[in-house]
């Protein structure tokens, strides 16, 4: 595999999230450079970035390794997203452009169509694009970047059940866009908060063999074992 040097960080992150590199495994510069077809310099820079993001840790005598988040840390990510997504929606109601609205409305139309046809895989992708665009419409690069990192980490630590009522979920997306289009910050915030709360209930921590725990664990400090998990 040969990729542009500036894409090394994204490639390594994607492979961590998808389970190519197991939790706790070593990430040597030489092997990574060979895998992605680059020199060790962009690999070293990528590992520093990923360490700052929480995907990588540096251990004495071992060097860079894939992080091993605890269940409490995983739970905190969902709570952070539940706080920040409504804020992004409220900001978007004041700062969105017509281009943002066009994309958001198009995604809602596609989502509603796919929901009627029962295309669950399409809905996951469309939902991710919707929330990414909504964050961008907030006009806050810091908020957009933070939410993007949260999405990556949540995808790494959780599996998401297919919602029982996808049409209702996409109706909520439509309500968010309507509020954003009207410039109604409080309405956009409240609908997004409700939507985020319902979505959080469908998240299940990943465990050995791909099994899931039925309830969210909020207090345990034991590491989440993701060995063998693939997205």
Keywords for this structure?
9 helices; mainly alpha; 231 residues; two-stranded antiparallel ribbon; 4 strands
Mind explaining what this structure looks like?
The protein has helices at 8-18, 29-36, 40-53, 71-95, 98-117, 120-136, 141-157, 166-182, 185-200; strands at residues 56-59, 63-66, 158-160, 203-205. By secondary structure, the protein is mainly α. A two-stranded antiparallel sheet has the order 1-2. A two-stranded antiparallel ribbon has the order 3-4. Helix 1 (8-18) crosses helix 3 (40-53), helix 4 (71-95) crosses helix 8 (166-182) and helix 8 (166-182) runs antiparallel to helix 9. The radius of gyration is 19 Å and the shape is elongated. It starts with 7 loop residues before the first helix and ends in a 26-residue tail after the last strand.
Provide the fold topology.
Layout: H1 8-18, H2 29-36, H3 40-53, E1 56-59, E2 63-66, H4 71-95, H5 98-117, H6 120-136, H7 141-157, E3 158-160, H8 166-182, H9 185-200, E4 203-205
Antiparallel strand pairs: 1-2, 3-4
SSE string, helices as H and strands as E: HHHEEHHHHEHHE
Q: Which percent range describes the beta-strand content?
A: 5-15%
Q: Would you count the extended β strands for me? A: 4
Number of continuous helical runs: 9
Q: What fraction, in percent, of the residue positions are helical? A: 55-70%
Helix-strand makeup class: mainly alpha
Give the rounded overall mean pLDDT. 86
Stretches where pLDDT is under 50 for at least 5 consecutive residues are 208-231
Strand order of the largest sheet: 1-2
Query: What is the rounded distance between the termini?
Result: 20 Å
The biggest sheet amounts to:
2 strands, antiparallel
Radius of gyration: 19 Å
Q: What is the global morphology?
A: elongated
Pfam family, one: GntR
Protein name: GntR family transcriptional regulator
Keywords: DNA-binding, Transcription, Transcription regulation
Domain HTH gntR-type: 2-69
């Amino acid at each position: 595999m040969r990729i542009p040097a500036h894409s090394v960080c994204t490639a390594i992150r994607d492979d961590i999230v998808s389970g190519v590199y197991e939790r706790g495994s070593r990430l040597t510069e030489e092997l990574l450079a060979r895998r992605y077809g680059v020199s060790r310099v962009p690999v070293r820079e990528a590992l520093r970035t990923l360490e700052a993001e929480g995907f990588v840790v540096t251990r004495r005598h071992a060097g860079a390794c894939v992080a091993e988040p605890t269940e409490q840390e995983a739970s905190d990510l969902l709570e952070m997203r539940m706080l920040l997504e409504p804020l992004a929606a409220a900001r978007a109601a004041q700062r969105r452009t017509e281009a943002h609205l066009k994309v958001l409305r198009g995604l809602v139309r596609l989502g509603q169509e796919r929901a009627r046809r029962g295309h669950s895989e399409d809905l996951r992708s469309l939902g991710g694009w919707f929330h990414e665009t909504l964050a961008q419409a907030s006009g806050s690069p810091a908020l957009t970047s933070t939410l993007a990192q949260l999405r990556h980490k949540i995808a790494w630590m959780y599996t998401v059940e297919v919602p029982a009522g996808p049409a209702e979920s996409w109706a909520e997306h439509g309500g968010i866009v309507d509020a954003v289009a009207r410039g109604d910050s409080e309405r956009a915030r409240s609908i997004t908060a409700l939507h985020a709360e319902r979505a959080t209930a469908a998240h299940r921590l990943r465990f050995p063999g791909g099994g899931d725990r039925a309830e969210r664990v909020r207090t345990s400090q034991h590491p989440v074992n993701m060995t063998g998990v693939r997205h």
